Task: structure prediction
Amino acid sequence: SKCNARCPHCFIFNEGDTRFAGKALSADEIDKMTRSMGQDAYNVMLTGGETFLRKDIDDITNSYLENTGTQIIQFFTNGWFEDRAYNCLEYFSRTFPKRNFVMVVSIDDLHEAHNDYRRLKDGFERAMGTYNRVKALNRPNIDLDIGLTVNTANEDRLDEIYDYLVKERGVRTL
Result:
């Protein structure tokens, strides 16, 4: 439950809230858990905070793929860690061609408004860069989505955000 962004709608960054401090399962604990799950898991959503802050995300993903019947793994990300996201999706989509992988990149507004909302300098550009780099893999078992949190900061610009992402940038799922 760690994140490099500081989005006002999210509880992860609330530094006064200690409910989640030190509570993340280790990769070994997740592996043990997945070994006891059986083959009934179909869709697994790996979320954060920021999913790709975990340096063991590949081990965690592999545990679900090897130990359960998981057919779809979804990675939720703010897109900041382009190399980690790309390498993860490239490897798993190649290694497990019959499984499906979804990367959901959070975009809450356009350009500086997005950066200000998430409190990440260059966050919009990095998120779109990660999206485009993974898209360029052009793998049939990778789907890309944009996850948009509607809030009071963007509610009056939803049409503008949609038009830019879909009509100008070629985003297929928003």
In short: Residues 82-95 form the longest helix (14 residues).
